[in-house]
Each structure stands twice: as C-alpha cells, then as structure tokens.
Amino acid sequence: MLIEALESAEAAQLIEEVSPEGGGTFAFAHALIPTTLAESIRALQRRRLHRRAAAAIEARCPDDLEALAHHYQQAGEAEKAADYLLRAGDRA
To answer: Does the predicted TM-score (pTM) go above 0.85?
Structure first.
C-alpha cells in the first residue's frame, strides 16, 4: 500500500526519489507541496497523523528528541512534548 502511494505521488510529480539506497528516500518536488497538503487536512486528522508519526519515530529513531517533541506538540500531547524538549535541552 505504501509503495503504491509513493509510486502514485512520484508519477504525479509531487515527490522525487533522492536516494535509492536503503529502501529509498523521497523529497517533495516543490517546497509549497507540504504546506498545501497540511492546510488541506482537518485539525483532528492532522493531530492523529502527528501522533502516528511520533509513535513511528519512537520505535525507529528514539534518539531524535527534537522530532519527537515537535510531533507530540502538534498532536496536542503537551506533556510528552515537554519531556522530549527537556531531554533535548539536557543533551545539548
């Protein structure tokens, strides 16, 4: 399902593959695309997506404290966001 979505987005010239190594890395083809997509998503759905992103980052990159703080803050989980911000500050 993900591969089909990536292929569709690439065919529509919304994203482009920037590195085929390690399963591939993609980037948006234009800087305005992520902004346009974010503005078109309802607030509750956006929060849910940020929560899912945070959970995925916790599972795969638990040391990315800044990204975790951002996604939890955007998900409306202020306590978790603050915890990750404090941990990032301590690390810095």
So the answer is: no
